[in-house]
Amino acid sequence: DAGITQSPRHKVTETGTPVTLRCHQTENHRYMYWYRQDPGHGLRLIHYSYGVKDTDKGEVSDGYSVSRSKTEDFLLTLESATSSQTSVYFCAISGTSGPEGFRTDTQYFGPGTRLTVL
Amino acid sequence: DQQVKQNSPSLSVQEGRISILNCDYTNSMFDYFLWYKKYPAEGPTFLISISSIKDKNEDGRFTVFLNKSAKHLSLHIVPSQPGDSAVYFCAASGFVGNSGYALNFGKGTSLLVTP
Q1: Position A90 in a domain
Q2: Minimal Cβ distance to B105: which of A42, A57, A103
Q3: Does the beta carbon of A43 lie under 8 angstroms from any beta carbon of chain B?
Q4: What is the pLDDT of residues A85-108, one digit of tens each?
């Protein structure tokens, strides 16, 4: 299994509070992703990173920001949590430290963080 | 707009029989397809993939078939086992933004294999 951990695994917070979720990998993979999973929606991409300090938006990025200051860590921040952000959040990684342009589509997922916003 | 569709939310199969899970996609630019398996309270686990230059890929009991002209792929599990009971997600890879590939997921099919 890919070395991916997520913290915290469970969190309950109140509307309007900031929340940061952490994804940590030990695989030295270039690409990291944040998804959310909701009933009836499958997994939807929030943000992704294609290198240190290189990030971009996904399908459902509103209300979320990300940062990647080290290869191994990818942080997802909810600046002011809302009830619509209650969800299960998954981090994923793909790729190796291979040459530029090397395509690596298979993603490996972390165990998830269950976030409840009251 | 959903670009990857799994039209069967659930499927029930007897142990030992074949399970067939279906997936359709709309974007002809997708050229790499994957199946993931997910148990409750765990992250999705990569199962099998197929490139668009192939029409079949096999790995043990799992075979994925791709019909590019119909924009359709299917996952066959033979023989099905109770441990295969899980939610199966179909995903298609597409280029996004700056030099990245992201997966577009279907909504999943819940497979139940009964003894």
Answers
A1: yes
A2: A42
A3: yes
A4: 999 999 999 875 444 444 567 889
